[in-house]
TrEMBL record, chain A:
Subcellular location: Membrane
InterPro entries per UniProt: SdhC_prok, SQR/QFR_C/D, Succ_DH_cytb556, SuccDH_FuR_B_TM-su
PANTHER family, per the entry: SUCCINATE DEHYDROGENASE 2 MEMBRANE SUBUNIT SDHC, SUCCINATE DEHYDROGENASE HYDROPHOBIC MEMBRANE ANCHOR SUBUNIT
CDD domains tied to this protein: SQR_TypeA_SdhC_like
Record-stated family: Belongs to the cytochrome b560 family.
Keywords: Heme, Iron, Membrane, Metal-binding, Transmembrane, Transmembrane helix
Main subcellular location of this protein, as a coarse class: membrane
Cofactor dependence: heme
Stated name of the protein: Succinate dehydrogenase, cytochrome b556 subunit
Parts of the chain that traverse the membrane: 21-42, 54-75, 96-116
Automatic annotation (TrEMBL), chain B:
Classification via SUPFAM superfamilies: Fumarate reductase respiratory complex transmembrane subunits
Keyword Acetylation: no
InterPro entries: SQR/QFR_C/D, SuccDH_FuR_B_TM-su
Places the protein is found: Membrane
Keywords: Heme, Iron, Membrane, Metal-binding, Transmembrane, Transmembrane helix
Pfam family, one: Sdh_cyt
Name of this chain's protein: Succinate dehydrogenase hydrophobic membrane anchor subunit
TM ranges: 56-79, 99-119, 139-158
Domain of life from the UniProt record: Bacteria
Species per Swiss-Prot/TrEMBL record: Streptomyces neyagawaensis
Annotated segments matching region Disordered: 1-45
Amino acid sequence: MPAGTLYRGREGMWSWVAHRVTGVLIFFFLFVHVLDTALVRVSPEAYDKVVATYKTPIVALLEYGLVAAILFHALNGLRVIAVDFWSNGPRHQKKMLWIVLGVWVVLMIGALYPVLGHAVRELWGS
Amino acid sequence: MSTTETTASGIGPVEGSGTLSGYSPENPAPLIEPPRKRTKKTPKSTRGNFEMAAWLFMRLSGIVLVVLVIGHLLIQLVLDGGVSKIGFAFVAGRWASPFWQVWDLLMLWLAMLHGANGLRTVINDYAERANTRLWLKGLLYTATVFTILLGTLVIFTFDPNIR
Ligand code: HEM
Ligand code: HEM
């Protein structure tokens, strides 16, 4: 680690940190995801057994977290691209970060029911 | 305030400039080369433009991945009953179509290469000892090649009648 750095950036630094953390998380997820999908070459039973665990409430919460990571990384990635290629990008970078966070919140609220609904029904009946 | 008017430029006449400098079209000032200018003597770069290509690839693949990955999440987690519908039969139905085979193949390659290149940057940033970098990157590249090959093989050899 670059030890003892005193740099404490503002929004720009934190969005960069979050972009990095989410990118690394998604990469590790993808590695495991290709392994579990490969079970379709073993047997239908092996695949279905593993996928069954993905339908449990706890994993549903993890899936919601994955969606959160992907959506942030994707939206902020588009912002980074806009800063790099759009001549007015750097001037609007902060405004664009707030737009990214706004869209992210809206999409996360929209994802609540589709991703977590079945877990809620399983835990609290009906 | 009147002072703002008199010192509008903030800088007095610069010594040795203007008509007093002694330079004229007949006696031009010596040309100073820009410090980083490439000349014939500049050594040829031996590394090519790999880092620039990698930088560009991150952005181009990112744009394509927005469509591929968010589309994938929509199909797997939101539409048609969400995660509950997933199973061997569901995958068999999807990979019966070349369109989704190509979709998944492209997503696999782009996401793995994009992620691996991103992790290469992260390793370069934090692993300070040359040896540590070497080992971490060796591990990263091995895992990446393995995952891409396995995923590709699975898409192309999928057999709905495995049993
Ligand atoms: C929790 C959320 C996710 C679920 C439930 C899910 C589900 C699936 C399923 C059922 C398949 C089988 C093929 C198909 O139906 O297309 C698949 C394949 C695949 N998914 Fe996902 N997926 C998820 C998230 C992701 C994410 C975030 C990525 C990319 C970063 C991704 C990348 C892939 C790839 C590359 C394949 C092809 C695998 C192969 O070649 O063997 N998935 N996924
Ligand atoms: C969904 C669409 C995506 C977009 C628009 C996107 C965009 C970007 C961009 C523009 C960068 C470069 C950032 C920079 O140079 O500062 C980047 C970095 C990165 N991305 Fe993505 N990406 C996407 C998906 C993914 C996926 C699926 C993964 C994992 C497999 C991933 C992992 C990473 C990693 C690890 C980095 C390096 C972060 C860093 O150096 O700090 N990204 N992404």
